[in-house]
TrEMBL record:
InterPro entries named among the record's database cross-references: PRC-brl_dom (IPR027275), PRC_barrel-like_sf (IPR011033)
Cross-referenced Gene3D superfamilies: PRC-barrel domain
Boundaries of every PRC-barrel domain copy: 2-67, 90-161
Pfam families reported for this sequence: PRC
Highest taxon of source: Bacteria
Name this protein carries in UniProt: Uncharacterized protein YrrD
Length: 172
């Protein structure tokens, strides 16, 4: 599954069947592990609501199910470090650079394996609009030695040779 497929999904309390919000973004840690989801705010100045990954009972192409409404926590947005789309440190559009100075592209999406829960398996790389049209986007599997920096994702030398054509999870 890709992060973009999860963003926008409705979130339901499995105890009551009540819709409690919609996925706005996903939170990660520095070890490339999903920590939870951020829910859409009802008002511009309302606090950020999060659900930690361990409180997510199930998720699929149509919805995210949480254990109960007690799983929703208020969080100061300044205390949320790494997110995909909206945080002060966001992964989307971050440049991907090899240790030997070769720009591979920019992060356009993140893949994770539903069977493994919150394990990130790779990042989708865009090399620009025209390259995406001509060649398509590529997926870089999560590699030992990949690290998120302030301005770039650093990957080992020769990582551009590990780029793959991503599977289209929506079609299958």
């Amino acid at each position: 599954m890709r992060f973009h497929e999860m963003i926008g999904l409705p979130v339901y309390d499995i105890e009551t069947g009540k819709r409690v919000g919609k996925v706005l973004d996903l939170m990660l840690n520095d070890e490339w592990v999903l920590q939870g989801i951020l829910l859409e705010r009802k008002h511009l100045f309302s606090s950020t609501k999060i659900v930690l990954w361990q409180d997510i009972v199930a998720y699929g192409e149509d919805a995210v199910m949480i254990s109960n409404q007690q799983a929703i926590h208020k969080q100061d947005a300044d205390n949320i470090n790494l997110t995909f789309l909206t945080g002060k440190e966001k992964l989307k559009e971050l440049s991907v650079l090899t240790e030997d100075g070769i720009m591979i592209g920019h992060v356009s999406d993140v893949y994770f394996d539903q069977k493994k829960g919150n394990t990130i398996t790779g990042i989708e790389i865009s090399d620009g609009f025209f390259a995406d049209l001509m060649e398509g986007r590529k997926m870089l599997p999560l590699l030992p030695g990949m690290s998120m920096g302030e301005n770039v994702i650093m990957v080992p030398s020769l990582s551009e040779q590990r780029l793959e054509t991503p599977m289209n999870y929506s079609d299958g």
